[in-house]
Design a protein that fits this description.
globular, six-stranded mixed beta sheet, alpha/beta, 13 helices
């Protein structure tokens, strides 16, 4: 398919949308990217870039700009007393970067790309399967036509609402807090405690912390916006948490969100297609949300470039991605359920029986499943020129 014949709208300029826009534009497509925020900035604290997501960013030439990322060899899962329950395999290396830095790098690249028109401060009001869309920007509403509309607009996607995607949103009731704190930790840990999960990942200038808030004491502290009570509740379950939360200045410096899962029976409908959380929001326990969005971008490019027409391309993209991502989402959900066990007897059984069994599973197979596509394949896809063997037929 000749991508230079395509006029594409990308809705959403976060990780999935920005990377999709850059890959398609560098392969010749004319891209308009919109985001409701006038100056898109990251909502979040830190981000763990696994080998699959990093391969896409490296292929885009953004590796040097992300040189501040902190390389981590492995993460230890520990209990509330700091005893090691499990360790990630050596090949499961990742780097931690602030979401703000990643977003800054992506937005700079968007503005520098001649095939991309950035229209920030513009929202998708309605999108239709025929490629028409109603946009609301600073000068009011316009109705416009595109060959393809990419919905990278998150859990509550407006693009998804315009098609028949069979979307199901599942509210888990589990809330997580996240923050960046100016406290140094020596290694990456995720503690499975009597109060839930508390994670700490070192990065440049401090530590990225994340914690679940499902216990009654933690839930009350969140509802009352009581940082002191939050520190005490976590400190009772896991001593290092009190020190790390003690470095958070005010309750307003915490980012708190409920984990919502998104499943779709299909990821495309005529001229609409989904990437990232719009298609597959998942629990954060495997750290594959943003990484999967980056893989979506590369596979969508590969499908468009290698197919004879748009319908064939989108069907190929859906077939290649949907089942793989659902497997990761299911695994992440199950891991989250294990990590959230708080009953003393159930935790003892988990730590002494279930966790050791996980170590017996083939680690190379687990890693392939987690990454979904090999990093080498993603590098090859994203680095190819935009030459194609056939013209597009709409």
């Amino acid at each position: 398919m000749l991508l230079s014949s395509l006029n594409i709208l990308v809705a959403g300029a976060a990780t999935g949308g920005a990377s999709t826009a850059l890959l398609l534009a560098r392969s010749g497509a004319r891209i308009t990217i919109v985001d409701r925020i006038q100056s898109p900035s990251a909502i979040g604290a830190g981000l763990a870039l696994a080998a699959n997501g990093r391969a896409v960013l490296e292929a885009l030439g953004l590796g040097p700009a992300l040189g501040c990322a902190t390389e981590l060899s492995a993460t230890r899962i520990i209990d509330g007393r700091g005893r090691t329950l499990a360790e990630a395999p050596p090949d499961a290396r990742f780097a931690v970067v602030t979401r703000a830095r990643l977003q800054e790098v992506l937005v700079d690249a968007l503005f520098a790309e001649p095939n991309i028109t950035c229209r920030f401060g513009t929202s998708v009001m309605r999108a239709s399967t025929d490629g028409s869309v109603v946009l609301r920007g600073p000068d009011g509403e316009t109705r416009e036509q595109f060959d393809l509309i990419v919905g990278a607009d998150g859990v509550h996607s407006q693009v998804r609402d315009g098609g028949a995607f069979g979307a199901r949103l599942t509210r888990t009731g589990v809330r997580y807090l996240r923050a960046l704190v100016p406290v140094h930790v020596s290694d990456a840990t995720e503690a499975w405690t009597a109060a839930g999960v508390f994670g700490a990942l070192p990065l440049d200038g401090g530590t990225y912390i994340f914690a679940s808030c499902a216990s009654p004491a933690l839930s009350r502290a969140i509802e009352q916006r009581d940082l002191r009570a939050l520190r005490e509740a976590w400190g009772n379950a896991y001593a290092p948490a009190e020190r790390l939360l003690g470095a958070v200045p005010t309750f307003g410096d915490l980012l708190i969100h409920e984990v919502i899962r998104v499943d779709c029976t299909r990821w495309y409908d005529q001229r609409l297609v989904l990437v990232g959380d719009a298609a597959h929001a998942m629990a954060p326990n495997l750290g594959q949300g943003a990484n999967s969005a980056l893989v979506d971008a590369a596979v969508l490019l590969d499908a468009l470039r290698s197919s004879r027409d748009l319908a064939t391309a989108l069907a190929a993209y859906d077939a290649r991605r949907r089942d793989k991502v659902r497997t990761v989402a299911n695994t992440s959900a199950r891991l989250g359920q294990l990590a959230e066990i708080t009953h003393p007897l159930a935790r003892t059984l988990r730590d002494r029986m279930l966790v050791p069994l996980l170590k017996l599973l083939p680690q190379d197979r687990q890693l392939r499943t987690l990454l979904q596509e090999s990093p080498a394949t993603l590098l090859r896809i994203a680095r190819q020129d935009h030459a194609t063997s056939s013209a597009v037929s709409h």
